[in-house]
Amino acid sequence: MLVIFLVGMVSLLLLRALKKDYEKIALQDEEYEKVVEETGWKKLHGDVFRAPDHLPLFSALIGTGYQLYTSCLLVILLAITGRLYDTRGTIATASVLTYAVTSLVAGYTSAQTFLEYSTKENTGWKLTMILTGLLFPIVVFAMCFFLNILSVVYNATNAISLLTFLSLFIYFLFLLKKKKKK
């Protein structure tokens, strides 16, 4: 009920603003146009389709967001069907697998976003694809590493050794190196 009330209030405010804009457009008086400065959407009309400052990063963030949304949606749908409660760790495994499968969604969305503001001749698409593939894993790795350092400082039992983290990082670097050679 509250949502309907808030939607009604926002729509009333928008209708009032649009009504005032239509009234200003309807008046063809030249003196009025000279006195009143442009307001509202008229000021933004040049900026609406302008490319963002950091287009590869913007496109990668959009693509990664779509990937995470799709991955979460698939895991929730699998959990609703009851397939994820058979053994221990199936939700984590399903999360990783759906994240890997939905990388297609991330690549497609980030490429579409990049091409919406740029041309095919722009070589920034390479950086966009690299950022799309590495943005979320690097953030997750950094968070886990920081939390693990806190666990080591407080002598917690769930702390992973720093050598394990180092070996994971080196493995990731070798994986990237192999992909570049192909």
SSE topology:
Layout (H helix, E strand, L loop, with lengths): L1 H25 L3 H6 L5 H4 L10 H27 L8 H12 L1 H15 L6 H30 L8 H20 L1
Helix pairs in contact: 4-5, 4-6, 4-7, 6-7
How would you describe what is shown here?
- Its main location: membrane.
- Pfam families: EMP70.
- Keywords: Membrane, Signal, Transmembrane, Transmembrane helix.
- The protein has 182 residues and is mainly α.
- It folds into two domains: 2-44; 55-181, no CATH class.
- The chain is 76% helix and 0% strand.
- The protein contains eight helices and no strands.
- It has helices at 2-26, 30-35, 41-44, 55-81, 90-101, 103-117, 124-153, 162-181.
- It is extended, with a radius of gyration of 25 Å.
- The termini are far apart.
- The mean pLDDT is 83.
How many runs of DSSP E, i.e. beta strands?
Answer: 0
Number of domains: 2
Poorly predicted runs are none
Question: What's the mean pLDDT score?
Answer: 83
Radius of gyration: 25 Å
Decide which structural class fits the backbone.
mainly alpha
Straight-line N-to-C gap: 58 Å
| Beta-strand percentage range | under 5%
Overall, the morphology is extended
The percent range for helix content is: over 70%
Main sheet overview: none
Number of helices: 8
Order of helices and strands: HHHHHHHH
Pfam family, one: EMP70
Family: Belongs to the nonaspanin (TM9SF) (TC 9.A.2) family.
Signal peptide: 1-17
Membrane topology: Multi-pass membrane protein
